[in-house]
Design goal:
Layout lengths: L6 E2 L9 H10 L18 H17 L7 E2 L6 E5 L1 E2 L4 E2 L4 E2 L4 E5 L16 E5 L10 E5 L17 H6 L9 H16 L2 H21 L8 H17 L2 E2 L20 H18 L1
Parallel strand pairs: 1-10, 2-6, 3-7, 7-8
Antiparallel strand pairs: 4-5, 8-9
Helix pairs in contact: 1-4, 2-4, 5-7
Keywords: Amino-acid biosynthesis, Aminotransferase, Pyridoxal phosphate, Serine biosynthesis, Transferase
InterPro entries: Aminotrans_V_dom, Aminotrans_V_PyrdxlP_BS, Pser_aminoTfrase, PyrdxlP-dep_Trfase, PyrdxlP-dep_Trfase_major, PyrdxlP-dep_Trfase_small
Pfam families: Aminotran_5
Length: 281
Amino acid sequence: MEQKSTINFGAGPAKLPQSVLLQAQKELLSYNSLGISVLEMSHRSSDFSKILNKTESLMRELLNSRPSSWTLNPSASYVYYCCNETVHGVEYNFIPETNGVVLVSDMSSNFLSRPVDVSKFGLIFAGAQKNVGCAGVTVVIVREDLLGHALKECPIVLDYKVQAESNSLYNTPPCFSIYIMCLVLEWIKNNGGSIAMENLNNQKSSLIYDIINNSDGFYVQKKEMKLWKKQFLDGAAKRGMISLKGHRSVGGIRASLYNAVTLEDTEALATYMKEFKKQHM
């Protein structure tokens, strides 16, 4: 039976690169010809330690510099911001200057989708299930001088000093999720790194936003789109496009164009949007 083609525009767990899924499938029963699955591998084994070390090495290599473009002078012990909030579709394309105050950021939705100057931050955390892997693991990059300042009430597994001293192996880690993340990081590296991801993501977003901006209000009139929402989603599903329904708290329609969503995937959505508008104008 022919495999049905489906394009996943979900906000997370999000689409993974096809080559990553195929490699994971190939190595599922026997990782690196060891005769055991990575799902069975002990986190204390030398083979898993190699995966962990390679993941860290790839992460360092893929993070590049980007200058800041805005100045902030807060009177706080730290400044927190989520640079890409996907519920309402808000993204900051700059790094705020905090004049020495520790900057903490949740980058779950755009981590490694573009270059970022890590030196500007005291702490970065990101769920991997959007751009760099599958659900089950969170990436944390913390400045070394901030280690050891956890609150007394902080669970020990969330004490970054403990995790750093244990090479992220204080407790049994999600081995398979880390393995998948390693494969995705390799895929990003082999496809040009974070700069190439940024260029590709700009192309994809431009395709969709150009249609919205030139739709004479068709895709921004809430009343009309509420009436057509079900028709739009049903039509998209028939074309193999899933997870376009907006967040439950705001409704509407949402297309998440993470790294693994291809230009061809985005063009398919753009074509459908043009056809749908033509049919309902």
